[in-house]
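Known limitations

C-alpha cells in this collection are predictions and should be treated as such. Users comparing against experimental data should check residue numbering before alignment. To illustrate the layout, the record for Glutamine amidotransferase domain-containing protein is reproduced below. The input appears on top and the generated C-alpha cells appear beneath it.
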Amino acid sequence: MRVLIVENVAGTDIGRMGKTLARRNVELDIRQAFDGATLPATPNGHDALIVLGGPQDALDDAGSLWFPELLELMRTFDRARRPVLGICLGSQLLARAHGGRNILAQPLEFGYEPITPSVAGRDDPLMSLLDPGVPIFQWHSDTFELPPGATLLATGNN
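Generated C-alpha cells:
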C-alpha cells in the first residue's frame, strides 16, 4: 500500500501514525504543501490519502493558497474510490470538500487524547491499521458537521 500524506504546516507531521503504518509496510509519499510541494492531480500511484492538521481554519484559502487544489484532490480520490483520512484541519477540509459545514472558534481541545474507532472505522482499510485507543495529539478550536453521505470513522473524548 502507498499512501499520500499532505502536511499543511511545518512541524505537524505524520508522527506516531507514520511509525505504525511503516511497521505495516505502508509506503509513505509525504508532500509539504505549505512549502510549495506539488500535489498530484490524480490519485494514480496512491492507494489512500491522509491530510494532516495545521493552525489555519479550513476556510482560509487566501492564507493557504494550496487549499483549493487540495480540496479538489480530496474529491478526486473519493471519485476514484480511494480512502481519504483527514486529521484535525484535514478532517475540516475533507468536510468542506464534500459540502459539510465548517464551524470556527469552538472551545479549545488540547493534549493527547485516545481516539475511539467507530464500527465503520474498525472495518475501514486504513483506520483498521491503527492500534485501537492510540493517543493522538489534539490542538484545535474549529470543528465541522459531517457532509451528506459521510462515514464517521473515529471520535475523541469530546
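For this record: The helical segments are 15-23, 67-79, 89-97, 119-123. The chain has one domain: 2-155. Please report discrepancies through the issue tracker.
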